[in-house]
Model the fold of this input.
Amino acid sequence: MFSDPEKVIEQCGIQAGMTIADLGAGSGRYSMAAAKALASTGKVYAIDVQKDLLSKLKNLAVREGLYNIEVIWGDIDKVNGTKLREASIDLALLCNILFQIESKENIVKEIKRILKPHGRVLVVDWTDSFGGLGPKPEAVVKKETTKEMFQKTGFHLDREIFAGAYHYGMIMKKL
Done:
């Protein structure tokens, strides 16, 4: 029913040594899947505003032997809120969070700032509200809206991916 982080991450073309930022990491399911895909090379920055979730994620990563996840307390709603250096990230993950973000313009600007030239962003979000299963109807960010939002900020659609029955998935590439 929900998106499967490991299956979604498999479609991203992660390569050894990449630097990945999971923006709005939450429970860390995407961070963990990305860290496993890196196979102990590279790094995953798991960024969230909720310190308790980051603490749980760090403990889970250590229990699973994933030492390439670094948690960062940050506010992805703000430019520079990730606390990451400019042009330092190969792949940004924006998974199941876009519908919660207040300033969608700021998050796109922040992603553009932190991505290396030709870096990519994976966007996964709800296609609809599904009678309360997903976000409130007014919070749903449609696929076309997401695509346009990134395109007008200097990205192009690399490809769409399968993200489950209730979600859309796309990889946007920084021009």
